[in-house]
Amino acid sequence: MLVSAKEMLIKAREGKYAIGHFNINNLEWAKAVLLTAKETNSPVILGVSEGAGKYMGGYKTVVAMVTALIEDLSINVPVALHLDHGSYEGALKTIEAGFSSVMFDGSHYSIEKTKEIIRIAREKGISIEAEVGSIGGEEDGVIGAGEVADPSECKLIAELGVDMLAAGIGNIHGKYPANWKGLDFEALTAIKKATGDVPLVLHGGTGIPEDMIKRAISLGVAKINVNTECQLSFAAATRKYIEAGKDLESKGFDPRKLLAPGFEAIKATVKEKIELFGSANKA
Ligand SMILES: [Zn+2]
């Protein structure tokens, strides 16, 4: 059964660790993340962007696949299925389809739309993440300029009653450029002060140095989004398999063999992140 992310995030904030949010793209991704969460005894959030939802066939397919995997693989840790960077229509559709958590970026809409999504989520017991400002880099064709959120704006959105708040602190989606200045801890401290107990979310978890991750968690970050890093691990392992000519040996072209190294690579990346974030054995 899927659960709201609310409770796991409150526990994480109080226990000074963070829950990993791992974006999924297909069955291999979902299975790899779920099995690793089970093996490390960690709560987990499966993130689905609107593009990934469409790719997998639609939100109902995603819900059916994830809930069936939880049952068939006896996944006994808390799992939230979360819409990542949702539009108004996407939020309504995923709630309808059975997601247990949504992120709504209300910046392109009137504040009434954010209030409406919060009200619907409350009624259904679904957790809601709001984004203040934009996160830099590119995700599903959405390009943000890379910015630091305004603490007073964060306070305003937090007070609407969201369960988690994503605020830019110099983090970006995708690979970090060589001249990246690092996370802005002064901004994070100011945002934390302005927003009180609302768990904070760090997007763009790929490639942030470990010491910065740990410091961010100590300052109130309770959810960290990882997407690109699993994609890079999967691609590198698959490339190695093909370049070694393994697909040409015996039945090496069988997708169950061809996709196995990438699957194991996703598992290794997820395990590394769960250990770094401190959520192992917190299920
Ligand atoms: Zn993001």
Molecular structure report:
With 283 residues, the protein is of the alpha/beta class. It has one domain (6-277): Alpha-Beta Barrel (TIM Barrel). The protein is built from twelve helices and ten strands. The strands form two sheets. Strands 1-2-3-4-5-8-9-10 form an eight-stranded parallel β-barrel, surrounded by ten helices. A two-stranded antiparallel sheet has the order 6-7. A hairpin with a 2-residue loop joins strand 6 and strand 7. Helix 2 runs parallel beside helix 4, helix 2 (27-40) crosses helix 12 (260-277) and helix 10 runs antiparallel to helix 12. The protein is globular, with a radius of gyration of 18 Å. It starts with 5 loop residues before the first helix and ends in a 6-residue tail after the last helix. The mean pLDDT is 94. Zinc ion is lined by residues 85, 135, 139, 173, 203, 225. Residues 85, 135, 139, 173, 203, 225 line the site of zinc ion.
